[in-house]
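Session log. Operator J.P. requested a structure for one protein chain; no other inputs attached. Running the standard single-chain path with token output.
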Amino acid sequence: MLITVRSDLLQIVDRVPSLVSSLQLQNTDASCCLLGRLVELVDCLMFQHPGFPDVYEPVVDALKVSK
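Structure written below.
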């Protein structure tokens, strides 16, 4: 079960840093709104599936840069 959760998380989390970069480059009201919602979703994901700091580290770094 733990291996399945980790692989599922990787499929989602691997795409987040590039999505953050893309939304930052657009620099529109809509992209800023989407970026805010993405932060909320990632926060929920990390709350629901704790214990994977190595998986979440690139996402947290990308979100820190976006602030």
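Operator note: Residues 29-48 form the longest helix (20 residues).
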